[in-house]
Design brief:
Strand order of the largest sheet: 4-3-10-7
Number of domains: 1
Helix content: under 10%
Structural class: mainly beta
C-alpha cells in the first residue's frame, strides 16, 4: 500500500540543511539541498522586456539586443555557481541561434550574471522567452 507524507518542513537530523536521498540502485545518496536550483528567471526580451516568473529572482535588466543581466535576491556563497541559459526564437529568423554565453567583460558576482544570446553570426538576438537557472550554495 502506498503512503502519503504531508509536511511543511524537512530538516536533517545531523545538519538541519542536509538531507540525504537514496539514489537509483540503492547504492548512492544525493544531498537534497545541493541538488536544488537556487534561482531561476523566465523573461521575454522581444517586444517589451519583462520578467514573467522567477524564484529567488530580484530583477532582470535589458542592456540591448540579446544582452541581459539577471540578479538574485539571496546571494550565492561564492561566484562558483553554475548557470544554464536558453531562449526561444522566432522560426522565421534566418540564422539559427548558437546559444548563450557569459559576458566576460562584466565580472560575475554572487548576486548578478550578465549573459548574451547570439545567432551563428555572433549577432545579438532577443527571445520570446528566455530562461536562466542557477545552482550552487547560497550565502
Amino acid at each position: 500500500m502506498a503512503s502519503v507524507l504531508k509536511v511543511n518542513t524537512l530538516t536533517g537530523v545531523t545538519t538541519a540543511g542536509s538531507i540525504a536521498v537514496t539514489g537509483e540502485g540503492n547504492s548512492t545518496t544525493t544531498n537534497l539541498q545541493q541538488g536544488l536550483a537556487k534561482a531561476w528567471h523566465v523573461y521575454k526580451s522581444s517586444d517589451t522586456f519583462a520578467v514573467l516568473d522567477s524564484v529567488n529572482g530580484a530583477s532582470a535588466t535589458d542592456h540591448g539586443t540579446g544582452d541581459h543581466t539577471t540578479t538574485v535576491t539571496n546571494a550565492f556563497a561564492s561566484v562558483n555557481y553554475t548557470n544554464h541559459f536558453s531562449a526561444e526564437f522566432n522560426q522565421s529568423d534566418s540564422k539559427v541561434v548558437s546559444g548563450a554565453s557569459h559576458q566576460h567583460s562584466s565580472a560575475k558576482s554572487t548576486t548578478a550574471l550578465r549573459h548574451a544570446f547570439q545567432n551563428t553570426s555572433a549577432e545579438g538576438r532577443d527571445g520570446f522567452q528566455n530562461t536562466v537557472t542557477k545552482h550552487g550554495d547560497l550565502a
